[in-house]
Amino acid sequence: MPKALKLTFTLVGAAVLGMAALADSLPPDATYRPLPTLPLGQVRANDEAEKPLVAQRQQTLLQQRYDLSDRPIPDVMMSGLRKPVQGGVRVKLPAGVTWDSLADMSPDEIRQRGLLPAGFRPLPHVKQATGGQVFPNNEIDEIGRQEQRNLRRFDVDFDFPDRFTPEFPPPIFLTSHPELGDVSHGQLLTIKNYYQLMVGLITPVQMEGLRLLLTPFPQEEFNQTEDRKSADQSLGVTCLDCHANFHTNAAFHLTPDVRPQAARFRLDTVSLRGLFNQQLHGSKRSLRSVEDFTQFEQRTAYFNGDHVSAQRKGVHLPDRFDQVPMMAQMQNMIDFPPAPKLDPTGHLDPTKATAQELAGEQVFLGKGHCAQCHVPQTSFLDNNMHDLKLERFYDIGQTENGLVMLPDGPIKTFTLRGIKDSPPYMHDGRLLTLADTVEFFNLVLGLKLTQDEKDALVAYMLTL
């Protein structure tokens, strides 16, 4: 590691230690999470006293980066028809520049003048020094109501306003029953209701897989040990606590695949819709089957990639030849929401689409270079990983709320099918709207799109 970067990590480590107030600090070069040095009661008291400051610090960052006002797109709803889609560019520009003037600058000029919009930079965890899974309030409340299981942490809360998260609970579409549409009946699948909701619709193998996906197992912050972050001893979390109804509720944690702690990037929960067409799993890990992903998640998403901590806290190790295939088969039955304007090849039907949507498709296939990675014929993905090299636009080693800004490196291509249902966007949720993503890629890829082309591209993506 270069000396300058070592110094950055040392300084960040000192800042992180100061913020964490002895509660559960990690040295900046830790590979393994150390055991707590204080009793749980003292850790909890420290964390609860610190919690308002932690929340305020994150809200200050979000307010500086984004316009968080409620500005839905007229007459555009998510697939369950219960929540409007937020519109407009929400990333704030630096003073004295416009999106067009910024797009005319070279990456070097933007970096040297410090003009990359803050909302385009990596997004920190609410509490980077600790990390871990953080659930939105609607998930916490519903699981508490149905299961009397508490997903609320005593040290941090979810940070984004609800308007920038997926509708809750999201609809469920089965590949085996497209004629039924949403089979959730507006309910959140839990261990309490899954059988009555799904009996007669799925096979015995799938039903057992669903049971396992809804069974709580110990997780780093929710378990029985003295270094948990739940007030009471916890049974743990389930796969579908984050992937609500096989979609996403915008729960987040830190990538398990990077160290040290200060460099681990925030990881937004990805939808499991259309998993049957995906051959690459995990933003960084490049796991090549849903079976591998299902098994490995018990050591990664659940325990920050730390098998030592997993063993101590009671890791669930699903049987590879029995349980894992059942869990995988259930995940592979989840379809995308209907897209009535698309034909069987993934292209717009000109008899159903508007002129603006058709114009957006042409930008998507041509000038925008979108289809090079998001291939329409293969569920708008290419099953590859790509490095956007965003660090061309900013100085690496900067810190925000404890996160060291380092290159993202290669990240897998995410599907765009049903994309209006999945805010916030990018692997860490740094972009709040589809208009934000268009401005991001217009800058990063040097596309020089006109405003009409940008608006048409957003209109097109809303049809997917």
Form type: globular
Provide the low-confidence segments as ranges. Answer: 7-25
Q: Beta-strand level of the residues, as a percent range?
A: under 5%
- From the alpha carbons, calculate the radius of gyration and give it in angstroms: 22 Å
How many separate helices? 14
Strand order of the largest sheet: 1-2
Q: What does the main sheet amount to?
A: 2 strands, antiparallel
Structural class: mainly alpha
Q: Can you write the helix and strand succession as a string?
A: HHEEHHHHHHEEHHHHEEEEHH
Task: Sum up the structure in keywords.
464 residues; mainly alpha; two-stranded antiparallel ribbon; 8 strands; 30% helix
Secondary-structure map with pairings?
Blueprint: H1 3-20, H2 40-65, E1 72-77, E2 84-86, H3 99-103, H4 107-112, H5 137-147, H6 194-198, H7 204-213, H8 239-242, E3 252-254, E4 266-268, H9 290-296, H10 307-313, H11 323-331, H12 355-365, E5 385-386, E6 399-400, E7 403-404, E8 411-412, H13 434-444, H14 451-461
Antiparallel strand pairs: 1-2, 3-4, 5-8, 6-7
Helix pairs in contact: 7-11, 9-11, 12-14, 13-14
Task: Describe it.
This protein has 464 residues and is mostly helical. The chain has one domain. The protein is 30% helix and 5% strand. The chain has 14 helices and 8 strands. Strands 1-2 form a two-stranded antiparallel sheet. The protein has a two-stranded antiparallel ribbon with strand order 3-4. Strands 5-8 form a two-stranded antiparallel ribbon.
